[in-house]
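Help! Submission page says 'invalid entity' but I think these are all valid:
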Amino acid sequence: MKLEVRNVRKSFAGKEVLHGINFQVESGTALGLLGRNGAGKTTTMRIIMDVFKADSGEILLDGKPFEPSKQRIGYMPEERGLYPKRIVLEQMIYLARLRGMSKTEAEKSSKKWLQRLEVEEYANRKLETLSKGNQQKVQLAATLVSEPDIVILDEPFSGLDPVNSQILKDVVRELIEEGRLVIFSSHQMSYVEEFCEDIVVINHGNVVLNGSLKDIKKEYGKNRITVSFDDYTVEKSKAVIQEKFGDFVAITGEKKEEVILELQEGKTKSDVMEAMLKEHLSIATFGNYAPSLNEIFVMKAGDE
Amino acid sequence: MKKFLLVLGFELKEYMRNKAFVITTLVIALLGGAVLFLPSLMDMSEYLPVPSKNGETKVEEETEEEVTLDYYICDENQLIPESLITEIFGEGTYQYVEEDKIKEAIETEEIKAGFVIRSLDEMDYYVLNKGMMDMESQMMESALVTAGQIDYCKKHNLEYEELSSVYNKEITVNEEILGKDTESNFWYCYAFEILVFMMIVLYGQMIATSVTTEKSNRSIEVLVTSTTPTSLLFGKVIAGAIASVMQVGIVLVCILGSYQLNREAWGGSLDMIFNIPAEVLVTFGFFGLGGFLFYAFLHGAMGALVSKTEDISKAISGLMLVIMVVYMLSLTQLSNVDGIIIKVLSFLPVSSYSAMFARIAMGSVSMVEVIISGVILIVSIIGAGWIGALIYRMGTLRYGNPIKITNLLKEMKNDK
């Protein structure tokens, strides 16, 4: 199953907020939709779910127009919302049946997901009596209750403590392993790095980065190295590099005790290593620079 | 259809579980029913127009009321015989005085009113504050008319009593109503008009609230991505309508049933309200409930325009204005059920619930007119539901200030 978002544009009150969004995601993989607040992630998800109509562009599933009502989709909106005054199990069964399950299936699946998310003891309680974290877990259970093939989660980790985040991480991992198509947005880059093979970074309604996370990291680490010296502070290391190796590398940043360097044109890592050894410097670490997703995100979306 | 039934069942269950809703229904039904049992349980003949419990006809005890001097009369030419004045105003309630004493006595509130008889064709009437039900002037006028007639008879050598008996001859009327008796149908027709009006106003607001609540608790986004807005709105509105009709129905059954059981004890004195013919109930069932459903959908749509329950009254104010105008027009036209205004109203979906019902209950209406009005109403209910669902869908995720209906209609047009 392949879901494609093609050149989607959307305006509100005459102002275009999405300027041609493109990406695709396949079953058995997770796509991380990243962007700053107001970048257009939620609007993109709502257009996929047909909550909003796109001004132009198309959403395709296996090459055909995507109709959410004809698919089993689990959608957890950013604005969490269930019935606060209704019994948890009752509303889960209701939502499962609305999405096409029989009463028996719905009941069985509701109990399964409540148990999986460790909130089965609240099945017969009113939602409003649960803590915020548990309400969040019930919301996720309600999203997955119809055993969806496509799962769309908008900021699923917000409001969860580390223990509940771990449960959610395990669940998302299982969904991917079971071959479901997962799209989720998050501000917590570490979660995205853990699950997502592909990422899309949206900034001001434009896709500024799109592709395999591995390739992106490789591309952003290309021609960059990190170095640290024994008994040298980062400042001292930087001063030494500036003074003695300016022909080989340019300093681009620092990461903890290491200095991030970019190779000058025509120079190789071996050239740098050789030059440093000639200066009898005690090298503590020397290696390829692997940027974190957070760093890439700040580079691409941190323009203000 | 399956999803509509699911929404309907889910929403209906909410009403049935609502303790306030259930308790209110039971309390009103039981109280209403119990009150109508009272004449069977105790002697109420002293307070109500019902037969006494032991079967004896209550004889009104003549109580000696204190006679007070209320009127001053100045009749210098003795134009009205005193016996006539006594007959009309009562012994000891009046006194003949000079004209100049009257005004002062009224201003000091010594007496209620005063009369100066100028001739058989003219009199002056004095009173401090004239009340809505002030009858004194008319009473003296009738005395003057009678005095004039007596005077005429005297002058023309005629026998007043004989002429009077000819003019005021008692007629025996054998009445057989072949059509409808407006007089006897008026009261339950009036009661039903008020009942439907109350249902529309009270339960309409309840339905609008149930729709707005889904926006305020943010469950609407999950719902509109799980099923169609039509299923959601129809399910919610019809569930609200069923709950309302059940509540009103239970209360009505209790009251009407109680009355039927105790009708003899009441001596049939409430027949004009509670002894309703079956065909009137059927008509009310169709047009009354049809009109209620029409407005229920419109209330549901208005509920989707706002995201906070406190904004509902603002959103439904336009609708309320229409309801009030229809209500006022219908009530004022009840005494003229074959007039052109009520005829027009009986075909409009906003007013047929009351106008056509009134025409059927009290006026002349052909079956063709009833069918045409019924079809218009059914089509309008479906139309209101369809437009309501569109508004519901367009209003999804519009939070903040209430959405103007004109802006929404423009957007709906642009989306097509």
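Support: the input was valid. A stray whitespace character was the problem, and the output above is from the cleaned input. Chain A touches chain B through 24 residues (CB under 8 Å).
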